[in-house]
Amino acid sequence: MFRNATVLLILASFLCFLYGIKNLFLEVEENACRMTYMFGVPQFSKVNIKDNSEFPHYGLFYYYEGRILQDVNRMKLKGAPVIFVPGNAGSYKQVRSLASVALRKGMDNDRGIHMDYFTVNFEEQLSALYGGYLENQKLFLRIAILAVRTLYKEANNVDKSIILVGHSMGGKVAQAVIQDPAIAKYINTIIFISSPIDKPVVNFDPKINEFYSNTDGYFHNKRTTHLPNRQTNVCLNYQDKIPHQGNESKILDNILMISMGGGNRDLLVRDGLTTSQYNDIHAMTSSIPKVWLSCDHLSAVWCLQLVLVINRFIFGISVIDENKNVFFSPDKYYRTQTAINYFVKPLNKPKSNEVYFPKLNSGSSWQEDSKIAFRKVFKNGLRADYNHLLPTAKYKELKKIYIEIDSYEDFENDWVFGCTAHRTEASGLYCQKGTSLSHFVQTIPSHDNYRYMVLLDIHRMLKYYPDWTHILVRLKPTNKPTSLKIDAYSVEDRKYKIKAPKFSLPKLKTLVNETVMGTIHTGVLIEGLDEPFPTVQFDIEPVECGDDEFGVTAKICIPWARGFNRHIHLTHDTKVKTIYVNVPFSTPSGYNTTQNPVTLDLFLNPSCRYKISYQFSIAGTFSKIVQEFYHWLPAHLTAVLFLVLRNQIVSFQNSEDALFVKPYAGFFQSKSLYIVTGCRLLKKLLLNLKFLPISPDTSNYSFYVSIIIHGTAIVLSIVSVFSIWTILTFHGNILHKIALKLTRLSTASSEILMKVVTTLPLSFGVLFISISVGTCSGIGLTLATIFYFLVISNAYKDYLENWAWDKAKGIFKRIRQKIRSTSKNKGTVALSQREIIAVDGNPGQELIPNNENGDTNELDDSNEVANEEKCSYFEGLENFAFHITMLMLLGIMSALNFGLSVAWIKAKYQGHIHEHLPDPFIIPTIITLTCLSVLLQLGAPRKSSGYHYVAIILYLCVCGCILFCQEIVYRLSYLITFVYVCVALQEVCYNFYTLILDRRR
């Protein structure tokens, strides 16, 4: 019963993973980015770089537009330099959206400020898959920066700082280049667009890990880190200084670093990877003012809304001198405030001076109203000033007052004030002067416009300004329809606190059965959301809306995650009327989500009444598990194969009857689930051991995440092995021909190669080790995997033929025996007489009947045939099960080298074969292929002693996969190599032991 439960658990885990994949696009809205169009023909002028013999295939280009060709090397540049750094598989031409908008903005502005955009050509290299590119790109970017500075020195004899804009892995390269102090002093600002800054998306090879580790180690000593702690709550005040590690300023602190994440549309670089402990500003595109939308990984570089904001910031920190030379401001504080203004929220500083209003005879109207909920719509706009007075004495008991205007042209100017009102007999109540409260104004997105709102705490305001009698909302004349909405309430009546439902079946709970008509703002405090995958689903249903359309704007704020605010807008046209709430990364150690909960602010249509419900979202949770932890699958799949290999070796050594040997032996197991449980306990012990050369993964998530990933890996291993056996059994010849085409071997060459390998299996290792050394380890491993499959396919084909022939012979002989037994029964009487005579003549002689051919050993032959059948079945089929597992392990190792293989092939076909491409896996590859050829030479596996030690080592390797390889995936190659060594060493040792015993005999 317990075994059946584990089987159901494994199957359920796999189904959960598939369900997560199905709902991966659950929160992804339609792409609302507007396309950026060029104003002229995009052109790129190549910059001449001296002493660039090391990277001749890279290039630096200057962007301009028009049909007239320009040579940047002869131009007199006076703009401020910006260098665009493309990312993984990115083109240098991706700069055209940013550069084209900047070019047009430079022509239109009155200040004479313009930008010079440069871009780097990395030939669309896959730098996220192969880390060997990263160091080369960093070195060339250094050369490019110096080349750009040379252009300005020759033209103007001035010293200019540079802004770097990095997309994807280009952002990491831009960050790494300032490790050189000679370059860092020239960099003014770095803008990261959808870049995995502190941690790679998947850690595929040691070069990626080394690149990130070196950068982190250098920045840790040279730049102040910003880390959230137990008291951090950025929802209360974004500009609160997050405590630093270290008190004194570091040498890299003057460089402003701004990072941006694409949001839920970016499925390549998840949200939590786009921030950094070294950044000054972080923002998600869905929360950047005037962007308010999510960008996928590629559209982030051409999305017009985002491109405009980036260029506004760059122009905002630019200054111009008397010679028309444009510079970037060296003042870090000024640049930071400008970045907050454009990427976080508009900064309207409190104004101490009072504003005097026009006289009463100017035509303006004044109106006082003390209603709790108030809405006034001006469908035809306003011909004169409209002044609405809200008496503070009436709202004092309610504490909070929410004021909103929309579709208003003059929102950037002051429109809300605090004042002391006076009453005259002629004109009534009015304010002669007032103090602006515009620094409290916030902007929230709407369906087709913006909503500008201010939330005032009356108690706090009167504490500082006890003389104020009214809040004044002053609207200026406009031709466009506009509206004014007011909602006064008590905090206790509008704040709902809930506990985030844990992993459970969906059960809808009603939070608000029906909101009061006129309600605009309400908030939900969500406790217990402390991991990046549990998702709470909120359903906002309109009960009644009158003549207005349904509309809700939601703002989600994560108190410990700076810059991860998210805005969601629902309308009657929206396909999904649901809001999903989750967090980008886990809380800091010891963080209390009860004191600092996740907040969900809902901005409603006051003419509607709503029902608000919530539940645990299974679809949202599983989709987040897939997105956050899919890169754990290689480690868990390798762990499963190690345990399968262990089970196959043990069952092979202990089985006496071939009937117990199955092709899928070892794959149907549940022991690895116990190992996953044990590894969680073991990790706590290992984290306290300081002498370990490498530390285990520090991530600590709920147990069911590991179970889902591991259960999925078990099912994938079973599906893979059955697919391979099915292919071998029914389509072996077809795949054999396909493999020959892939390797470009003729049938004759293949047969010769097969015979050579069959006669001398050590040639297998010699051949593919030579290929690995001559090309790269990825190519050698891929070809070795293909040829290993060919060997198995060819051997299994021969085995099936021999097995079928032996079975046919056995059936034919049994038929003959039945025929003979029938004829012998007929001649029993005659035979008995001969036996009597023979016995009388030789009383002590034993009579043995002869067959027709005089063969007296037919029974022995039949026994020998049966034994041969068993031996053939046992050795062939069990060997194939063993080699299929070894083939799958070799395939995983080849897959980990995919980036290196693509890099080598690309370099060869582009004529850059002289380019230095580091091969971090060449030594493990040589060792693995050597061990594989030894196993083929010895005909492994064989019945031998010492397999118990190998079984124990495989158990330890299973733990190693789960503890050390979930996040740092490339370590699997070393573990697979170690397993190959252990298995081969055990076979070699037993072989020597057998030879010694034979000599002694």
UniProtKB/TrEMBL annotation:
Residue ranges that the Swiss-Prot or TrEMBL entry lists as coiled coil: none
Pfam family, one: PGAP1
Described purpose of this protein according to its UniProt entry: Involved in inositol deacylation of GPI-anchored proteins which plays important roles in the quality control and ER-associated degradation of GPI-anchored proteins.
Transmembrane segments: 701-728, 764-791, 880-900, 921-940, 946-965, 972-993
UniProt cross-references to Gene3D superfamilies, sorted A to Z: alpha/beta hydrolase
GO CC annotations, alphabetized: endoplasmic reticulum membrane
Subcellular location: Endoplasmic reticulum membrane
Signal peptide: 1-20
Protein's name according to its UniProt entry: GPI inositol-deacylase
Record's keyword annotation contains Lipid metabolism: no
Keywords: Endoplasmic reticulum, Hydrolase, Membrane, Protein transport, Signal, Transmembrane, Transmembrane helix, Transport
Domain annotation GPI inositol-deacylase PGAP1-like alpha/beta: ranges: 77-315
Membrane topology label: Multi-pass membrane protein
Lineage summary: Eukaryota, Metazoa, Ecdysozoa, Arthropoda, Hexapoda
GO-annotated biological processes: endoplasmic reticulum to Golgi vesicle-mediated transport; GPI anchor metabolic process; protein transport
